[in-house]
Design a protein that fits this description.
alpha+beta; Heat Shock Protein 90; 2 domains; 12 strands; 410 residues
Length: 410
């Protein structure tokens, strides 16, 4: 259920965020394109005027018939034209706005002339450049000061990013509300299913106990021995299943009010000792490396159940004549429990699935051993109730179940 809510939330969040990002990108791209086009058009118009201008005969002469060029005014940008002779010397300077030509513009013009050996138009990135220009070798140089344009574009970009950032917070809460609305019917159905399983298990427990008791009272002879034994075996299997279902139901409703301070080191040590006899039957040795006196706030019976499930699982799926390692360590504000066994590796695609209810990787093995795919689901519920994390991974022939708990500050 949690995975469904997370996937639904992230899907909605990403879709809405993507639309917001596309809108912001489109707005800035449109503004950039408009300014770029305006600058390019101004350079193009000035180029047409300067190319048509007759060349001056002498270096000291003013160009003739260039009234259109001198009278040309540009409202949106600071545009300056420098008239050049055949040697690329500046022989005249024209401002096409109300601004006078200052020393900075003149130095910029000289620098452009020195560093360019052929005619070119240079606009570049409007977010970084302060000047753009059109250089006509031996004819003219038009410079446009785009400082105001650059500042405007950067301001728009900053405001857009700020609005997107604020919008992400709004989108986050909207996504949560939509997720709750979408998943509410599923959650209700899921809760009804859990209640049904718990109630059905309780209702089945009593009649099943009666069946088992009555079966024990039946007279066994050669004719009915086979059938009575089958009846007992199936009744025992059903009783075991109902017990596990009830355990699963209990772990789904663990409350922190029932938690107490407990020495988890002692709990793990005792469980490891209890399972040594079961491991011995498969010639499996249990090695422990348990930090001493690790105290956490927990539900003692549930932690006991968690350790039992993990060690029992390690024995069940471990190789004969191998070892199982039970490690408990503490680092900073975290407690880590590891149960490691040597055996058939778990495929990476099933790392998450094995914690699902009734999921069984090796169905034939689990059926023979009376397993129903509930143990690891119960373990996950216990860890989740204690605000911890559980995961599994296989590497180099070893499978590790890793449980992490945070150490409470209080």
């Amino acid at each position: 259920m949690e995975n469904l809510k997370k996937k639904t939330f992230f899907t909605i969040f990403i879709i809405i965020s993507l639309f917001a990002f596309i809108f912001a990108t489109f707005f800035n791209a449109q503004t950039y394109h408009r300014e770029y086009t305006g600058i390019a058009n101004n350079l193009s118009r000035m180029r047409n005027l300067t190319i048509k201008r007759p060349e001056p005969i002498d270096k000291e002469m003013k160009p003739i018939n260039d009234d259109d060029l001198r009278n040309r005014k540009v409202m949106d940008y600071e545009v300056y034209t420098f008239i050049l002779n055949n040697n690329n010397d500046i022989i005249d300077k024209i401002s096409h706005s109300d601004n006078d030509i200052n020393e900075e513009i003149i130095n910029k013009a000289k620098n452009i002339i020195v560093n360019n050996n052929k005619s070119k138009i240079k606009i570049g990135c409007l977010y970084w450049n302060k000047y753009v220009y059109n250089y006509e070798e031996g004819n003219s140089l038009t410079i446009v000061n785009i400082t105001n344009t650059r500042n405007m574009l950067l301001t728009n970009l900053f405001i857009s990013l700020l609005l997107v950032g604020i919008g992400e917070l709004v989108i986050y809460f909207i996504s949560k509300k939509i997720t709750e609305w979408i998943t509410k019917p599923v959650l209700e159905s899921f809760n009804r299913e859990k209640e049904f399983v718990a109630n059905a298990s309780h209702e089945l427990k009593t009649p099943l106990a009666v069946i088992v008791a009555n079966t024990d009272c039946l007279d066994v002879n050669k004719k009915n021995e086979k059938w009575i034994n089958n009846l007992k075996n199936e009744a025992d299997r059903m009783s075991n299943l109902i017990t596990r279902l009830l355990d699963l139901s209990k772990t789904e409703y663990l409350k922190k009010e029932n938690f107490t301070k407990n020495d988890i080191s002692m709990i793990i040590e005792k469980r490891a000792l209890i399972f040594e006899s079961l491991a011995y039957e498969k010639n499996i040795a249990i090695e422990t490396n348990i930090a001493e006196k690790v105290i956490i706030s927990c539900h003692k019976e549930s932690i006991d159940e968690l350790v039992s499930i993990l060690i029992d699982n390690a024995i069940s799926h471990g190789k004969e004549n191998s070892k199982i390692k039970v490690n408990l360590s503490v680092s900073k504000n975290e407690i880590k429990l590891e149960i490691i066994n040597e055996g058939e590796p778990i495929p990476e695609s099933e790392y998450e699935k094995i914690f699902e209810r009734f999921y069984r990787n090796d169905k034939s093995h689990n059926r023979k051993s009376g397993r129903y795919g509930l143990g690891l689901a119960i373990a996950k519920n216990i860890v989740k109730a204690h605000d911890g994390n559980i995961r599994v991974y296989s590497k180099d022939g070893f499978t590790t179940f890793e449980v992490k708990f945070k150490i409470s500050e209080h």
